[in-house]
Amino acid sequence: MRGDDQYGAGIGSEAGELNRNGWNPASVWFKWVDVGYNGLFSINTFGSTFDTVLYVWDTATPLTDSPLRYNDDFGGGGLASRTSFTAVAGNTYYIML
């Protein structure tokens, strides 16, 4: 994966970004173009020393569409998040944490 300047590779809140549960913290965005993998793809923030949230979109307009997957506090609490989705070769995914 690589950071994508179009959706803010730096840490900070983007114009129009989601207000998650009444708060709008800084975020990091990644754009992943799946060039040849079909199957289950998992991402996590295990080992994080701060509270994290993960969102995944499979749409070109992630700030206006519903996420494909979302997770906050994997396993019922704590700081880490984890989510999985079925990746399709040729698709583009936007990941926000």
Summary, kept brief:
The protein is mainly β. Helices cover 0% and strands 34% of the residues. The strands form 2 sheets. A 5-stranded antiparallel sheet has the order 1-2-7-4-5, with no helix packed on it. A two-stranded antiparallel sheet has the order 3-6.
Outline the structure in words.
By secondary structure, this protein is mostly beta strands. The chain has no helices and seven strands. The strands form two sheets. A five-stranded antiparallel beta sheet has the order 1-2-7-4-5, with no helix packed on it.
List the helices and strands and how they pair.
Elements (H helix, E strand, L loop, with lengths): L1 E2 L25 E5 L5 E6 L8 E5 L11 E4 L9 E6 L4 E5 L1
Shape: globular
Query: How far apart, in Å, are the first and last alpha carbons?
Result: 13 Å
Strand % is 25-35%
Mean pLDDT: 79
Strand order of the largest sheet: 1-2-7-4-5
The major beta sheet can be summarized as: 5 strands, antiparallel
Tell me the quaternary state.
Answer: single chain
* Strands, count: 7
In N-to-C order, the SSE pattern is EEEEEEE
Helix % is: under 10%
Report the radius of gyration as a whole number of Å: 13 Å
Output the structural class: mainly beta
Low-confidence segments, given as residue ranges, are: 1-9
- Specify the number of helices: 0
